Amino acid sequence: MDYDALDVGTTDGFVWIRIKGKGSFSTSPPLKGFIERSLESGETQFVIDLGDCPAMDSTFMGTLAGLAMRLSRTEGGRLQLNGVCERNRQSLQDLGLEGLLEIDPADSEWCGHVDDVRGTLESLSAEAPGNLDAAHILEAHRKLCEASDENAGKFSAVIDVLEKRAVGE
Questions:
Q1: How many domains would you assign to the chain?
Q2: Which of 12, 100, 137, 156 sits at 20 to 30 Å (Cα–Cα) from 163?
Q3: pTM of the predicted model as reported, rounded to 2 decimal places
Q4: Residue partners of 18: CB distance under 8 A and separation at least 6
């Protein structure tokens, strides 16, 4: 497989999604789609396992922010992150997302048996990413700006370019 992958499963009442490789603009659409389908089928609690994710781009973090915002408006909705390395933790903090996301909660139901959970996951069959999805990237960056006022300055140029691209299509 030439691209990053997602493994998924359900345990302890949580839908578990393990990111294998970089959390990026190419992994965020299948992540969002899977969570949206899970929500439609009644699931409300999610763990994003970043134990094998060495880095995340802004599109991926914006997707996480948007999903966390949506889940905060869903009865019983939760989005927890597991296995967040220092680099990813710093990236989330730099974008003001640490208050929006439950990062490595010590009192989680799954704490203590992460390796067992990982052993039950199956690969999410997804097509290899094609062209960049400008609408998805734009939405993710808008969510970052919604999550923290400071992000508006950081991403205004990106949003401007993507909005112009969307108008031109």
A1: 1
A2: 100
A3: 0.88
A4: 6, 7, 8, 49, 51, 52, 118, 121
User: How far apart, in Å, are the Cα atoms of 14 and each of 20, 30, 87?
Assistant: 19, 18, 25
Ordered per-residue pLDDT tens for the chain, 169 residues: 345 789 999 987 899 999 999 999 999 999 999 999 999 999 999 999 999 999 999 999 999 999 999 999 999 999 999 999 999 999 999 999 999 999 999 888 888 888 889 999 999 865 545 556 888 999 999 999 999 999 999 999 999 998 888 776 5
Q: Pull the structure tokens for residue 165.
A: 């691209």
Decide: helix, strand or coil at residue 12. Answer: coil
Using CA atoms, how far apart are residues 148 and 126, in angstroms rounded to an integer? Answer: 31
CATH value at residue 12: 3.30.750.24
**Structure-token pair, residue 82:** 């597991």
Q: Can you give the residue range of the structural domain that contains 146?
A: 5-168
| Cβ-based neighbour number of residue 64 at 10 Å | 29
